[in-house]
Write a structure and sequence with these properties.
With 343 residues, the protein is mostly beta strands. It has three helices and twelve strands; from the N terminus they run ββββαββααββββββ. A four-stranded mixed β-sheet has the order 10-9-7-11, with helices on one face. Bound molecules: calcium ion (2 copies).
């Protein structure tokens, strides 16, 4: 249903205040366990997932515990994804024609492969319809992020985009890793901080993450130095040494989406609802959706304040866009005391 999912993007762009709730976090073990290359060890602990003072979708802040795991230091890059494609000849969903079965009323031309691309309004325009900055673009995919005339030359270290959930799963299977749950992602995203709004502290900073400064979608003052996506590790890491857990590109999680965190309180390694219970009332026609985290370079204070660890959005599993990527985790690491592989 990817061609019809533009409406799902509007919910990134609601304006709310920035007060973050009480949050606790317990460091459980030393950070000298050995993760696979490019990954960081996250010691398990307990924290409050979500927020009681921002969007309804983040409520309520619940006390949950996650076991230790390793997580990618940065978003999966174009170079990393290219290795996968070269080894497997995998074609992403954006590179495949839309199916006749799923879209019987579309013509062959309308079923051409493509994806959803962000294009800001023309300069000087001061009012546009909501979501008019999103365009279904034939030929847009991870190798051509802005359409067939664009490419990723010289952008090996940029996060790969136009990745649908099923594409991320295929990559994860090839790597022998998994997509993080929302709880794992949020716990890692907080960077070990307690009671903080952002992954670096309580004050918004244009220097801490690639977000949008100015009035979205008309004016980007580029105070953070980046109009669009930045190469990974362009901004300081959080307390766990993880880069771009805030902003740059949204990141997929394995949880199915529902509003809030009901039922997770005092649970160990919580996950979202079952697929058949996944529902976003803001997108009633879209069925089951996955949780995405962290916000993107398109999140601005006037229209999207989801550049916080507690913030969340829903995303159709068969749809990628210009501003959604991912990173992986593994629960297999070498224990510092015995050298055993833990599961
Ligand atoms: Ca920026
Ligand atoms: Ca990110």
């Amino acid at each position: 249903m990817k061609i019809f999912c533009l409406k799902s993007l509007i919910f990134c762009f609601l304006t709310l205040s920035f007060i973050f709730p009480f949050s606790t976090q317990v460091q459980a073990s030393p950070i000298d366990n050995k993760c696979p290359e490019g990954m960081v060890f996250i010691p398990g602990g307990t924290f409050n997932i979500g927020s009681d003072t921002h969007y309804e979708s983040e409520q309520s802040a619940n006390d949950v515990t996650v076991d230790s795991f390793c997580i990618d230091r940065h978003e999966v890059t174009n170079a990393e994804f290219r290795q996968f494609v070269e080894a497997t000849s995998y074609k992403t969903i954006a590179e495949r024609p839309l199916s006749k079965e799923q879209f019987p009323t579309l013509t062959d031309e309308q079923r051409q492969p493509g994806s959803i691309v962000f294009e800001p309004p023309s300069e000087g325009i001061q009012q546009v319809a909501a979501l008019s900055w999103w365009h279904w673009t034939v030929g847009a995919n991870w190798q051509h992020p802005y359409g067939p005339d664009s490419n990723i030359e010289g952008k090996d270290n940029y996060p790969v985009v136009h990745i649908a959930y099923d594409d991320a799963v295929a990559y994860a299977n090839w790597k022998g890793k998994t997509i993080p749950t929302e709880a794992q992602w949020e716990y890692a995203g907080r960077g070990g901080l307690k009671d903080q709004d952002f992954s670096w502290g309580n004050q918004y900073s244009a220097k801490k993450a690639n977000t949008w400064q100015g009035i979205f979608p008309f004016l980007n003052t580029k105070e953070d130095g980046h109009l669009g996506i930045a190469s990974v590790e362009s901004f300081p890491p959080n307390g766990y040494g993880l880069y771009d857990m805030t902003g740059n590109v949204w990141e997929l999680t394995s949880d199915w989406y529902s509003v809030g965190h009901s039922g997770k309180d005092h649970s160990l390694n919580p996950v979202g609802p079952a697929k058949n219970a996944s529902f976003d009332p803001a997108k009633p026609s879209e069925g089951a959706l996955h949780v995405i985290k962290g916000g993107s370079y398109l999140c601005a204070k006037n229209y999207c304040s989801r550049y916080r660890p507690a913030a969340r959005e829903s995303q159709a599993p068969d749809t990628g866009t210009t501003h959604i990527g991912f990173r992986l985790i593994t629960v297999h690491y070498v224990n510092s005391t015995g050298g055993d592989k833990l599961v």
